[in-house]
Amino acid sequence: MAEEIKDAVIKDVKIYDVLDLWRRKPKGLFFADTDVIVVTIQAGGKEVKETFFTCLKGDGTFSVKTPNRTTQAHRQKLADFIKYYFNIENPEEYNVKDGIKSWKGGKVEIDEWGFVVIP
């Protein structure tokens, strides 16, 4: 499994509207969760997908702080991912819509269960 961790590379990144993927929002998603970022990672011979839920503003940025704890946790996960793998100091000022173009080919760490490591 150590080889898969070493060879984990982002293969594709797409942004979807939640309602493009589901007819109704799944349980655990709230009113403010409108966008889905799906990151496809090639880890050795297998493909791993990481999904981030957020609400992108018109300028491509997002806000981590929301009144709902679950929604805030979803957004914090995305912010931590951006900080750790792309060395962005303030992810709330980062234009995700434009920035994902540069994510392809980026290296990420995968744990032994196939999850992306986000410290």
Count helical runs.
4
Q: Can you tell me the overall shape?
A: globular
Could you give the distance between the termini?
A: 20 Å
Rg, alpha carbons: 14 Å
Q: Give the total of beta strands.
A: 3
Assembly annotation:
single chain
> How many structural domains in the coordinates?
1
Give the low-pLDDT segments. Answer: none
Structural class: alpha+beta
Biggest beta sheet attributes: 3 strands, antiparallel
Which sequence of strands runs across the widest sheet?
1-2-3
Q: Summarize the amount of helix as a percent range.
A: 25-40%
Written description of the protein model:
The structure is a single chain. By secondary structure, this protein is α+β, with helices and mostly antiparallel strands. It has one domain (about 1-100). It has helices at about 1-5, 20, 70-85, 95-100, and strands at about 10-15, 35-45, 45-55. The chain has a 3-stranded antiparallel sheet with strand order 1-2-3. A hairpin with a 2-residue loop joins strand 2 and strand 3. It is globular, with a radius of gyration of 14 Å. The two termini are about 20 Å apart.
Explain the layout of strands and helices:
Blueprint: H1 2-6, E1 9-17, H2 18-21, E2 35-43, E3 46-54, H3 69-86, H4 96-99
Antiparallel strand pairs: 1-2, 2-3
